[in-house]
Design goal:
Length: about 250
Amino acid sequence: MRIWVALAAACALLVGGTPASAEPRVFGGSVAVGNPIVVGTAYLTGNLYRICSASVWRPRILLTAAHCVTEENTGALIDPGRLQLNSPGAPYQFVGGSLVSRSPARVVQIITPPGFVQVGRQVVANDIAALVLDSDIGPSAISRLASRAEIGLWTSQNAPVFAAGYGRTSATGGGGDVPSQVSLPLAGIDEDYRGSTGWVINSRTAGVGDICSGDSGGPRWSSSATGNLLAGVIAGGSCGTSIIGAASFV
């Protein structure tokens, strides 16, 4: 329980100006090879989402999207043994349907908010999960969580916040082998989004880049003189169909 309390402030969600689909992918971004923040996760059997991304919060704790680790329409946690991880910065390689170059670390516990249920591909509130590992996956480049005051200031300034993941780099293909990142200016905050008790921070996407399938669970962060400040994780996106299409759920 103490783990979840510590992580709850880092929730993130990507939504569009219209109802968003929980299929994020980075496109229009740049290659982020060696980025120690982003980890790939693969689901070779089981739920709807076969590939997601994750954020290295602590060497033995990852953050990802709850819809990546629960059964659709029931909220039941999937068996942690069905998850495979790649090492930070390592590209995905699938051979015969299996993920190679994967980390020896194994997920031993999944923590999601009470009552979370993903219905179809509609973005819902509280879409975040913590993955507890049996061994360290590597050091995290995250210095600390961003505060609400900092996020509020960034939003008032339309300041850019990074997003990264292993999803596609275009609407029709590409990506998946190496992580990509994109810098998206913040455009506004929605409080208590769809009954949640947190913030949804919308980002502007037109002419900049966007997020869609495969990036769910990837980090949203800002780099500053004091380090990398985690603003949340990706859970949905507009896939380039909206001017305001990406946001953090805090």
